[in-house]
Structures are given as structure tokens and as C-alpha cells.
Design goal:
five-stranded mixed β-sheet; alpha/beta; binds pyridoxal-5'-phosphate; globular; 407 residues
Length: 407
């Protein structure tokens, strides 16, 4: 499960030794043992261009498909080491790093879809992913069919001979529904349609979509993978042959990461398992606290026994992450706003997966300009609060929420 990838063709450890631990892979995976200037850490190579000794070396580079730097839009050494590390962590053959999760999604879909194609998308998802498909892909003649999350029969029914991809998040943002990847992959195989899972909320620590047979795994590395609320990045992982056209298109669209940014991500990944263990613990403890609170009407968290996907989550996930969605009893949007405003430790902001706890009201933060009908359709009631537990101590997150809920 946490074996470093055998197929990247990259020497994971200069001694040729292999390791099995998740954190060991996160610390050492993808890195050369001996680095530039004998430094322990990788150099940040601030070059937008890479030079050639003479004309013949340019020709050799082109004819022999050599792996070396050329121009920064096609990649840089810092981006390549992070790609290898992420592939090792995910257990994927290859990974392509982008300047954001959205750049990853847009580039992947544009590389794979043409006018006349269709995709089928489970309807609970990050609002910008939905917006890209419904508003922009539509202009290029690609049709997105949204079906109810978890309705596998509806997904299968929506497939036609034009369908090119099945897409879902797992768990979904912000409802935290968990997808049965076995059923999802089976539909893809039955109709010979590729599958994509945005596993941002799960991370490779909690969910292994590649092992379940999913073709492409996408993460907003801005969230848990970077983990410190200080960078934007995205990654698409899968088998190398299927990712070749995605990599080519990244070189054209230019959604590549800067060397500095890549270094921050590489550094953040070293503590990935430690952070995830705390996020999982905090998410569970805070969800249990909220579920027993008199001012709270309902909590959505896969680790709670009353969550509709609890059994599936326990069977298929290692932990359930730091995101907890809950509803205050008072249905008035201002009552939820008072809880958000009452927090003294948790900060108000979008995003999740970083060390700092963040809280927000999805109606205000992401859906303020949507009509009441659209908010009802996307399942965003006024009294919904999304809490992204950081890695602080659970007691302090709980005490902060408790005083905010008391008002
Ligand atoms: C944040 C997020 C994205 C977008 O990622 P960015 O790095 O912000 O571009 C995509 N999917 C999910 C599930 C997210 O939470």
C-alpha cells in the first residue's frame, strides 16, 4: 500500500535499498541521495532557461528525447523532484505538477476531451470544478452531465457512446460523501470510459484510488499535501502513457510551478504523514464534540456512525481527514455567521488541509451570488458551516468552537 513506486525508473535511494514506510517515502521518495553541492536538501534552481554547449547538443536533445532542462515552461529540476516524490507517495507511475489544483483539472480535461465528447460528473463538488465544466468546457462543445452523488445507476445510465470520462471527488467538498470506487471503476470498465477522482480531501494517506483501478487521481496540493496554507499547487497522477498528452499541454498552457513554490511543497511533504495523523485525529474528535452539542443540528463527517457512507469509509479509508461540515440549529444565516465570527482561534477563510484551523460559511464564502434555487440544488443551506481542522491540539479547537456556539 505505501510501497514506493517501482516503475518510475528513478532510483529512489542511491544505495538501491527499498523502504515500506509511508513517512520514509514522504521524506526520501523521488530524491537523489547525493545532491548538488553535497547539500542535504535539494537546490532551488531559479532558471527560466537551460543552456546547451553547442548546436550538436541541441540536436542530440531533440533526436534522443534526452531528459534535461530546456525552457522553464516545460519543467524545472525542483518540479521534477516533487513529481517523483508525489508519484512515490501515491503509488502511481507518473505525476504532473501544476501551479494550482484548478490548473491541473483544466489541463487534464482539455488534454483528454474534444468537441462532441461528454463527461459524467457526480454533482457534489468544488464549485470552480463545476463552473469550469458547465461554463467553459461547454463553450468548446463538451457536454457535462451531472448526476446525483452516489447514484451509480444514474451514472451508468448517463453514459453514451460519446462519454469520455467519469469524474468525482471523494470525499466530496463540502458534503463529505464517500464514493464507492469499486462501483465507480466498474462502470468505467463496463463502458470503456476513463475515470478521474479528485482525492484532495482524502489525500494518498487516507485513500488509494490507483490501487482501486482509477485512471487519474487529482489533488489540489494547496491543501493537505502542501499543508501550510502558504502555496498553491495541483497534481495529476496515473500511468505515464496516459499522461503524456497532459504533460505536453501543460507545456503549451503554461500552468507550471515556480522552483521556489516546488521547494515549499517538497518541504511540506516531509511531514505529510505526521500532519495527516493529527488532521484525522482532530477531525474525528471535533466531529464527535459537535455531534453532541445542543446548538448543532447535524454533522457531516465520514468517521461518525450516522454518516450515510460510514461503513464504506471505514472499509476503504485509513482516516477521514480534518474537514468537518455542520449545521447550526437556528436556520437563519446570521446565526451561523455569529458562530463563525465568535471563533477566537480558528480563522475565517476558504481552503483546508493546512496547519491552521479555518472556518467558513459556504453560503457566504462560495455561494453568495448564487440564487436560492441554485443553492438548494447544490445542497448549500444558509446554516452550513465548514470547519477545516488544522494540527493544533483538539482540546483547543473544541474549546474555541464551544465558546463560539454558546454565543
Ligand atoms: C481547492 C480544491 C480544488 C482547487 O484547487 P486549487 O489548488 O485551489 O486550484 C479542487 N478540488 C477540490 C476538492 C478542492 O478542495
Amino acid at each position: 500500500m505505501s510501497q514506493p513506486n517501482e516503475k518510475t525508473g528513478h532510483e529512489l535511494n542511491g544505495n538501491g535499498s527499498r523502504w515500506t514506510g509511508f513517512s520514509t517515502t514522504a521524506v526520501h521518495g523521488g530524491e537523489d541521495r547525493q545532491k548538488a553541492h553535497d547539500a542535504l536538501t535539494d537546490a532551488i534552481v531559479c532558471a527560466s532557461t537551460f543552456s546547451f554547449e553547442n548546436t550538436q547538443s541541441v540536436i542530440d536533445f531533440i533526436e534522443q528525447d534526452q531528459q534535461r532542462g530546456e525552457y522553464g515552461r516545460y519543467g524545472n529540476p525542483s518540479d521534477m523532484v516533487v513529481e517523483r516524490k508525489l508519484a512515490a507517495i501515491e503509488g502511481a507511475e507518473d505525476g504532473i505538477l501544476f501551479s494550482s489544483g484548478m490548473a491541473a483539472l483544466v489541463t487534464l480535461l482539455m488534454a483528454k476531451l474534444s468537441a462532441g465528447d461528454e463527461i459524467v460528473f457526480f454533482d457534489q463538488c468544488y464549485h470552480r470544478s463545476r463552473e469550469f465544466c458547465a461554463k467553459y468546457l461547454a463553450r468548446y462543445g463538451v457536454i457535462t452531465k451531472q448526476v446525483k452523488t452516489g447514484d451509480y445507476a444514474a451514472m451508468a445510465n448517463a453514459v453514451t457512446d460519446k462519454t469520455k470520462m467519469l469524474v468525482s471527488e471523494s470525499p466530496t467538498n463540502p458534503h463529505l460523501s464517500v464514493i464507492d470506487l469499486e462501483k465507480f471503476v466498474e462502470i468505467g470498465r463496463r463502458f470503456k470510459v476513463e475515470t478521474l477522482i479528485d482525492a484532495t480531501l482524502a489525500t494518498p494517506y487516507n485513500l488509494r484510488p490507483i490501487a482501486a483501478g482509477v485512471d487519474y487521481v487529482l489533488h489540489s496540493a494547496t491543501k493537505y499535501l502542501g499543508g501550510h496554507n502558504d502555496l498553491l499547487a495541483g497534481v495529476v497522477l496515473g500511468c505515464r502513457a496516459k499522461l503524456e498528452d497532459v504533460r505536453s499541454l501543460r507545456g503549451v498552457l503554461g500552468g507550471v510551478n515556480s522552483p521556489h513554490n516546488c521547494y515549499l511543497l517538497q518541504r511540506g511533504l516531509k511531514t505529510f504523514e505526521l500532519r495527516m495523523q493529527r488532521h484525522n485525529e482532530n477531525g474525528q474528535r471535533v466531529a464527535e464534540f459537535l455531534a453532541g452539542h445542543p446548538a448543532v443540528a447535524k454533522v457531516l463527517y465520514p468517521g461518525l456512525p450516522d454518516h450515510p457512507d460510514h461503513q464504506l469509509a471505514v472499509r476503504t479509508m485509513r482516516g477521514f481527514g480534518g474537514l468537518v461540515t455542520f449545521f447550526v440549529k437556528d436556520p437563519d444565516w446570521q446565526a451561523a455567521a455569529r458562530v463563525v465570527d465568535g471563533c477566537r482561534m480558528a480563522r475565517i477563510g476558504p481552503s483546508l488541509g493546512g496547519v491552521e484551523t479555518l472556518i467558513e460559511q459556504p453560503y457566504v464564502m462560495s455561494y453568495f451570488k448564487y440564487s436560492p434555487a441554485d443553492r438548494a440544488r447544490f445542497g448549500i443551506p444558509d446554516n452550513m458551516i465548514r470547519l477545516a481542522c488544522g494540527v493544533e491540539n483538539a482540546e483547543d479547537i473544541i474549546a474555541d468552537l464551544d465558546q463560539a456556539l454558546r454565543g
